[in-house]
Design a protein that fits this description.
By secondary structure, the protein is α+β, with helices and mostly antiparallel strands. Helix content is 29%, strand content 31%. The protein has one domain: 2-Layer Sandwich (GTP Cyclohydrolase I, domain 2), CATH 3.30.1130.10. The chain contains four helices and four strands.
Length: 140
Amino acid sequence: MTAALPTPATLAATELMLTCRRLFLSNYEVAVRIGVHDFEKQGAQRLLINVDLWVGLADTTPQHDRLDEVVDYDFIRSTIAARVDRGHIELQETLCDDVVALLLDHPKVRAVKVSTRKPDVYPDCEAVGVEVFRMKDLAR
């Protein structure tokens, strides 16, 4: 019996775990004008945003305990705020894709996972949401 070869996705995940640290922002609550239904277009609604960033250890291991040696958490929050401030968004998918692209544009960020949750849309469930994961070419 031969062992199965690892898939490219498994190899990439292993590479991230071995060479990166994960930064996260959990349940960041923002008021967002988002949605396609008429009742959602009346004003902003509560949205919970979760972000995971993988940054290379080689690029973000502080030698002098200084903020400029790492990726600042404020970068995550300000990136989200800037995108949300651009105006009404129809779909959570659009917001997730946009935030992922903006965060992944940072030179020290190797991979990003963003999820959004609308907790107040339906009375019979906790939330509805979307999650997206993207990564840069690890050969960089």
